[in-house]
Amino acid sequence: MNRLRNPICVAVSWVFMAVGWAGDGTLLSQAPAATASRRNPLQGQERARRSGAKLFAQECASCHGENGAGGVGKAPRLRQPEVLGASPGALFWVLRNGSRQNGMPSFAHLPEPQRWQIITWLTAQP
């Protein structure tokens, strides 16, 4: 019997692939719970949002697109529910740590308030 046409083999293959994808998770899902639960101290502040827009243009737009809607190369679109619905702490963790595997540099060189400004801008966008 051809394994590819056997419905049981196909079902088992799909289960293993789903478990593998879930196990790998996204970069956002890798944020430790203690960090992911952090709140953005600048949330809702217009001045922080404007500063975040400038910082995004300087630091992030070359990979994620002008407003985060379109990435270059492997950089993901940031205008998607998974990112926009992520906790501020998880976003902060990604900015601080980056991911060599995914080509995302760390932005730990930016002072903490500037990273929060970028998150303020990103999460305030429609």
Gross morphology: globular
**SS summary, helix count:** 7
Tally the structural domains.
Answer: 1
Order of helices and strands: HHHHHHH
CATH 2nd-level architecture: Orthogonal Bundle
Give the tally of β-strands. Answer: 0
By CATH, the superfamily comes out as Cytochrome c-like domain
CATH topology name, in short, is Cytochrome Bc1 Complex, Chain D, domain 2
In angstroms, what is the radius of gyration? 18 Å
| CATH class group | Mainly Alpha
Low-confidence stretches: 1-24
The overall pLDDT, averaged over residues, is 81
Fraction in helix = 40-55%
- The amount of beta strand, in percent, is under 5%
Distance between the termini: 53 Å
Report what the structure shows.
With 126 residues, the protein is mainly alpha-helical. The protein has one domain: Cytochrome Bc1 Complex, Chain D, domain 2. The chain is built from 7 helices and no strands. It has helices at 7-24, 33-36, 46-59, 61-64, 81-84, 88-97, 112-124. Helix 3 (46-59) packs across helix 7 (112-124) and helix 6 (88-97) crosses helix 7 (112-124). The protein is globular and about 35 Å long. It starts with 6 loop residues before the first helix and ends with a helix.
